[in-house]
């Protein structure tokens, strides 16, 4: 195989695209809610989720890169029709998430500029569409993901600093928790690498033709970096919320993430929340639209030909549904859990594909990575069952 020059800018863009897709409005809401519920012990859930996320992401990115095919085509080769089923689940989950993302972006502009949430949603949808109208949409998407990712991390770092969290207790409870929740782990893992999110970066690399066995060391670094970026943001938000919760202040149940910023930083903190909520919403709109449509574009030449137009249509429909239904606050938590249920199925299919020569040719998947991948499938399936039991018998 001839050596290809690897484009590191695309790799970093792919890592930020995955991380930005993960760090949406639901991510902010989930982190605030579970910090209030579990306190410092939520650190253990984050640590456990980082390990599960990294294993899932490494397996999926590497197998897609070696197969040089999108996940749905790999799934169809594993078992005819399976790719269509996975695409249906991911596309539907991506649409549901995108409605929440547009709502979050609208809420962010409502706080920042004083416009209505609906007006903010329309303005945000227009900005997202602008990225895909641009001819070099791939480069624009990479640059946008990097900018928004850095902005979110810096703002979260500032709020974490001024909320003065108990760092020693957080460190102790991260390895020795007093509380645990199946639903929290499932939702956090689902919200970071579940559903469409884990495929966002891998499909971006595929789109930019940055694949192949010779590029696996770089691709592995990208996969781990993507999880690291999302986890850093989760950790900073957790510490910010912990500082507020430890001070004995109750979070506003109608908007827990906003109250963390407001209680920690006053009116300035509240405005910063608006900025972080908008950047979280808009970057997730871009990531969700791109990845959800990437799951259907290989099914028909017409979809491939009009790929950008379909992505734009996906954003328009998501915005229209939000404007018709209103703010889907409850589904932001629910969709994370649903995406967590999709993960063991998607990862399981990829692990089977790793041992089919017609899919991966002569590539040999490292045994340790397969064993860890199988463990994640088992653990996530078990936690899915535990979460369903918790929901049915609270």
Automatic annotation (TrEMBL):
It is a multi-pass membrane protein. GO terms for molecular function: metal ion transmembrane transporter activity. GO terms for cellular component: membrane. The chain crosses the membrane at residues 38-61, 82-105, 111-134, 182-202, 223-249, 269-296, 308-325, 331-355, 367-392. Keywords: Membrane, Transmembrane, Transmembrane helix. The keyword Protein biosynthesis does not apply. Its main location: membrane. The lineage of its organism: Bacteria, Pseudomonadati, Bacteroidota, Sphingobacteriia, Sphingobacteriales. This is Membrane protein ycsG. It is found in: Membrane. Pfam families: Nramp.
């Amino acid at each position: 195989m001839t050596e290809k020059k690897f484009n590191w800018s695309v790799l970093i863009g792919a890592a930020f695209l995955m991380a930005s897709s993960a760090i949406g409005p639901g991510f902010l809401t989930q982190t605030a809610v579970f910090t209030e519920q579990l306190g410092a012990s939520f650190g253990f859930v984050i640590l456990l989720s980082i390990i599960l996320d990294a294993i899932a992401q490494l397996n999926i990115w590497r197998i897609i890169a070696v197969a040089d095919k999108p996940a749905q085509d790999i799934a169809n080769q594993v078992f005819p029709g399976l790719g269509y089923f996975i695409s249906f689940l991911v596309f539907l989950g991506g649409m549901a998430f995108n409605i929440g993302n547009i709502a979050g972006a609208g809420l962010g502009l409502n706080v920042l500029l004083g416009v209505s949430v609906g007006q903010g949603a329309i303005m945000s949808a227009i900005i997202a569409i602008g990225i895909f109208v641009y001819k070099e949409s791939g480069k624009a998407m990479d640059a946008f993901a990097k900018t928004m990712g850095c902005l979110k991390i810096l703002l979260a770092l500032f709020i974490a600093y001024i909320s003065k969290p108990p760092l020693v207790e957080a460190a102790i409870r991260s390895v020795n928790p007093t509380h645990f929740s199946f639903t929290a782990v499932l939702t956090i893992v689902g919200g970071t690498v579940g559903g469409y999110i884990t495929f966002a970066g891998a499909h971006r690399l595929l789109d930019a033709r940055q694949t192949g066995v010779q590029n696996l060391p770089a691709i592995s670094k990208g996969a781990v970096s993507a999880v690291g970026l999302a986890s850093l943001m989760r950790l900073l938000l957790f510490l910010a919320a912990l500082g507020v919760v430890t001070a004995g202040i109750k979070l506003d149940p109608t908007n827990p993430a906003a109250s963390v910023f407001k209680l920690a930083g006053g009116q300035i903190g509240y405005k910063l929340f608006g900025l972080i909520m908008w950047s979280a919403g808009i970057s997730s709109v871009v990531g969700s639209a791109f990845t959800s449509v990437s799951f259907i574009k290989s099914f028909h030449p017409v979809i491939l030909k009009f790929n950008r137009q379909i992505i734009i249509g996906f954003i328009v429909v998501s915005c229209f549904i939000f404007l018709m239904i209103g703010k889907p606050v409850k589904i932001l938590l629910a969709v994370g859990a649903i995406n967590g249920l999709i993960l063991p199925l998607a990862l399981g299919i990829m692990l089977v594909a790793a041992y089919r020569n017609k899919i991966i040719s002569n590539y040999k998947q490292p045994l340790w990575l397969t064993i860890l991948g199988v463990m994640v499938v088992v653990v996530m399936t078990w936690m899915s069952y535990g979460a369903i039991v918790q929901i049915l018998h609270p």
